Amino acid sequence: MAEITGIYTASHTPVMLNFPDSIPAALKDEIFAAYKAMGDDFMAGKPDALIVLSNDHLHNFFLDNFPAYCIGCAESYESPIEHWLHATRRTFAGDQAFGSYLLKNALEAEFDPSFSMEMVLDHGSLTPLELAGVDPDLPIVPVLINCVQPPMPTMRRSYNLGKFLGQAIANYDGVDRVAILATGGISHDIATPRMGMVNEEFDQTFLAHMESGDVDATIQYATDFVHTAGNGCEEIRMWMAAMGAANGATYERTYYKAVNDWYTGIGIGRFKVS
Amino acid sequence: MANWQEMMPSTRAYLMDKVLYELHHKPDHLEAYNADADAYLARFGLPEELATAIKSNDVAGMYLSGVNPYLLRAHCIGVKIPEAESLAALRSLLDHEDYNDG
């Protein structure tokens, strides 16, 4: 029976690594410190494994075969896949048995994820892990949600998948302590005319909903207003999944800033699960 | 404006998607494209206006093809279109009356 030691939500963007100096140094330092604080809090829980809820940005998956959900079942994951990303190449340990367990149980619970035994993780997983300073030897299980190519799974389905994951993790005997990092969002536009115009009003309202603990209202707001906050905001499906896994635990933001020159509303927060 | 130009997959967008995907993921494709863009693009059987948009780094033209925005973004960085130029081209398409009201 595994204990969930921490559940975090955090934005990601390649701009943090590619053009970090497009914002004032003091702001960059403040944001990087917020990610580091998240990582320190994560590691303080002494997890044996980390579930990374993220999305592929059309690198491992293309439109010839694009999964709504995919569970990683590999022994290790190289990163990054983007030839243009300014990041040190590294290899994350994978928890093959844990990923396979989640896959089998997801199918039995009538979710139908695809699975992958070989993925090269992109910036969506790499940047928050790198900035958080998470030990690359901590075994991970990536769970990827399609947030980048319509039509996409619903917010509620993603919440329900997270709820399943929380229960499946609790029932797993292979490790003792598990942390969850859900990464993506909040408001941002990728390669649209609105790129660089963060919808802060959406982000503030969304975070307030998350903190209210009203799951149905949060899912409804995400569903009804995501289209005002940019295609990158579709990544709040991972926040929905984290909320499902948190099973009613209170959420609190630990950092938020609308950073137009990074094109992204940078939000970080955690569920008080322990 | 909405988050997406196309809420369903379309063949026209897919033609552009495939070029921008393969260019940055298949071994030697970027080198082949840089060496001879016309010869490289001829492999794909694109409509002429789409091929022209790609080889002339016409970011607004590529966007309007319906291409997946993540592929467009990665392409702009991958072929080193200056960031300010990409942004200005996209911004030129913004209808301010539509901004953030979906």
From TrEMBL, chain A:
- Which residue ranges does the record assign to the Extradiol ring-cleavage dioxygenase class III enzyme subunit B domain? 7-255
The cross-references to Pfam families, in alphabetical order and at most eight, read: LigB (PF02900)
- Highest taxon above the source species: Bacteria
Q: Which InterPro entries match?
A: Xdiol_dOase_suB
Protein keywords: Dioxygenase, Oxidoreductase
Coiled-coil positions are: none
GO molecular-function term, one example from the UniProt record: ferrous iron binding
The protein, known as: Possible 2,3-dihydroxyphenylpropionate 1,2-dioxygenase
- Could you tell me which species this protein originates from? Maritimibacter alkaliphilus HTCC2654
- Lineage of origin: Bacteria, Pseudomonadati, Pseudomonadota, Alphaproteobacteria, Rhodobacterales
Automatic annotation (TrEMBL), chain B:
Signal peptide residues on this chain, from the entry's feature table: none
Query: Residue limits of the Extradiol ring-cleavage dioxygenase LigAB LigA subunit domain?
Result: 16-83
- Name the SUPFAM superfamilies for this protein: LigA subunit of an aromatic-ring-opening dioxygenase LigAB
Q: Which domain of life is it from?
A: Bacteria
Give the protein name, as stated in the record.
Extradiol ring-cleavage dioxygenase LigAB LigA subunit domain-containing protein
Source species of the chain: Maritimibacter alkaliphilus HTCC2654
